[in-house]
């Protein structure tokens, strides 16, 4: 294991935005992670850097890196083991395994419960940490247990679903900062007809290709959707039309589009014409371009509807 210096984070970001990591390492398993942490402890002591200045990086689908880069250690997570237990109807996946690939592999083996993740970017670890979801499905519905490593102490931690404290795009791993490295998750699924599961998974993938701006780099949805109960009463009748069926959530994309912000550009970043909650990097986009558009949308939504939007992405 050798920790490197100066790796450009834009090369590890879906957004293709971000400066250099002062220190950078990639790990394939727990042993390599422990070795990396030992090396980092020595470096941080020699350089008088806080040991806890560690960023665990999956596929870089939900992080906006600054142009200055990251001042500590970025650990790229490549833990990618995968195994199915047909008797227990579970799948154990390494935290660096791609969630979209897991959805396909589960479907091929007749496991139902991850169809909604067809085409979803990111890793299993990222999906657990942020409780990713789409089309009514969410990661927390499938999680049986999660194993993690406490970075400072090296202690292994095992949590069941309840101990993960899942919420809307939230979990104990997100609330506790960046002090843990998720190692693997055991997901409890259902057995079904392979053809039917695979067909539905591919339908969700096709939907994403059709409705989402996949021709340009993005971080997916920039803002969380809005709980309809939080919409001011005087606007509920006007905005209820955007809630599908009996949904209790108001899609933020609908508000952005209603306010005429589709296609608005700042530098190399544009509010997508295809999906208004996606800000695409059309080329040469900078972190400040993204932040300017985030502020613009938040100000316009607040002024029009008295709603305070919350970012779904993480800004470093």
How would you characterize this protein structure?
The chain has 316 residues and is α+β, with helices and mostly antiparallel strands. The protein folds into 3 domains: 7-77, Uridine Diphospho-n-acetylenolpyruvylglucosamine Reductase, domain 2; 82-206, Uridine Diphospho-n-acetylenolpyruvylglucosamine Reductase, domain 3 (2-Layer Sandwich); 216-315, UDP-N-acetylenolpyruvoylglucosamine reductase, C-terminal domain (Uridine Diphospho-n-acetylenolpyruvylglucosamine Reductase, domain 1), CATH 3.90.78. Helices cover 28% and strands 24% of the residues. The chain has 8 helices and 20 strands. The protein has helices spanning 30-46, 99-108, 124-129, 172-175, 194-211, 233-239, 252-258, 287-305; strands at 7-8, 20-27, 54-57, 63-64, 70-77, 82-85, 90-94, 111-112, 133-134, 137-138, 143-150, 156-160, 180-188, 190-191, 226-227, 249-250, 265-266, 269-271, 279-281, 314-315. Strands 6-7-13-11-12 form a 5-stranded antiparallel sheet. Strands 1-2-5-3 form a 4-stranded mixed sheet. Strands 17-18-19 form a 3-stranded antiparallel sheet. α2 (99-108) runs antiparallel to α5 (194-211). It is globular, with a radius of gyration of 20 Å. The protein starts with 6 loop residues before the first strand and ends with a strand. 41% of the residues are buried.
